[in-house]
Amino acid sequence: MRNNFQELERQEMEQRTVPAKIKNGVDAQVGFFQFIGSLFELYLPKMVDLFVHKMSSDSDNAPKKAQKRYPNK
Question: 3-class DSSP state for residue 11?
Answer without folding.
Answer: helix
